[in-house]
Amino acid sequence: MKIKIKKLNEDAVLPKYAHFDDAGFDLFAIEDTVIQSGQRITVNTGIAMEIPTGYVGLVWDKSGLSVKEGIKTIAGVVDSTYRGEIMVAIVNLSEKNYKFEKGHKVAQMLIQRKETAEFEEVEELTETKRGSGALGSTGK
Q: How high is the pLDDT of residue 138?
């Protein structure tokens, strides 16, 4: 699969896989950005991409940033029809500020096939052993 990338800024870093056969490729910050503790922001990447029809880009945390720094990605769906700048929405869950430096990894994206569901309203759903049990219903 080929994904067309357009640099919107000459300093933008093209996405790349860190290792052979990685599921996600890295997205990079285009500028220095500080996220305060508890704050939500978007980090610009300086790129746009053409995700093929029938696929979706899913933005996920970089595990090291998430575990070590409390940086969590949010709003991570990029549809195949979107042609604007890839922006990474994040929240800082730690008690300290964090600085993304220009050219540093901010998140990773996975390209996956997507299905389009058809919805059918019914009077009843099929019974299962779990039923409507939720939020801890299976115990510890």
A: 65
| Tens digit of each residue's pLDDT (9 = 90 or more) over 6-21 | 999 999 999 999 999 9
Residue 133 lies in a domain: no
For residue 77, the domain's CATH number is: 2.70.40.10
Look at residue 130 and tell me if it is in a domain: no
Count of the separate structural domains present in the chain: 1
Three-class HEC string of the chain? CCCEEEECCCCCCCCECCCCCCCCEEEECCCCEEECCCCEEEEEEEEEEECCCCEEEEEECCHHHHHHHCEEEECCEEECCCCCEEEEEEEECCCCCEEECCCCEEEEEEEEECCCCCCCCCCCCCCCCCCCCCCCCCCC
